[in-house]
Amino acid sequence: MDGSTDKGSGSTTLRVVGLLAAIAGGAGALIGGLAAAGYIDGAGGTSGPTTEITTTPPTSPPTTPPTTPSPPTTPPTTPPPPARGTISVFYRTEGTPTCVLTPEITIGDRTAQPSDFTPAITDVLLGRQDYSISGIIECVDDFGFASWCTIDGSGQIDVADGRSFFVVWNLPSVEFGVCNMWLSDV
């Protein structure tokens, strides 16, 4: 053409150039704002506040050792009760002054006061058992003189069901004192 410009095409070019300038200005403002906030440095790299993220490797759940089956349990058994029996305890007064005995005899875990009329002691533990005897012996001799003594005795006997024992004692040499007493199976 003749050197004149087309107003229509020039204004379009101008508009595109203006738009590009506006975008470039906005981009520059955006970059400047990001740089001012510390998110990028002047060379376009990142700088400023950073957040460090640490990760831990996943942990496996706790492991328990494999269980071995336990043997079947049987209910506890109650031991049988200890064997018990009945014994007889006699005492003789022949050849001695007239005496009244009131012995208390403990054999194992059983205590009784046998007499001439009821010599049996029941529910006595069988086997070797400790015994103790206590009480009083009161005697009157042929002349009417009275004496008494405190019974003291202990020992061990072999208890068997139906067995008989005899109470043996010695009279003190003085009128009053302690009489030794024990059980004999003879």
Element layout with pairings:
Elements: H1 7-37, E1 84-91, E2 98-107, E3 110-112, E4 120-125, E5 127-140, E6 146-159, E7 164-169, E8 176-184
Parallel strand pairs: 1-7, 6-8
Antiparallel strand pairs: 1-4, 2-3, 2-5, 5-6, 7-8
Describe the structure.
- The chain is of the alpha+beta class and 186 residues long.
- Helices cover 17% and strands 38% of the residues.
- The chain has an eight-stranded mixed sheet with strand order 3-2-5-6-8-7-1-4, with no helix packed on it.
- Strand 2 and strand 3 form a beta hairpin.
- The N and C termini lie far apart (165 Å).
Average pLDDT? 76
Distance between the termini: 165 Å
Fraction of residues in helix: 10-25%
Strand residue content: 35-45%
Determine Rg (CA atoms, Å): 59 Å
Strands, total number: 8
Order of helices and strands: HEEEEEEEE
Residue stretches low in confidence (pLDDT < 50, at least 5 long) are: 1-6
User: In DSSP terms, counting alpha (H) and pi (I) runs of 4 or more, how many helices?
Assistant: 1
Secondary-structure-derived class: alpha+beta
Main sheet summary = 8 strands, mixed
Oligomer: single chain
Feature tags:
disordered N terminus, 38% strand, 8-stranded mixed sheet, 8 strands, 186 residues, 1 helix, alpha+beta, 17% helix
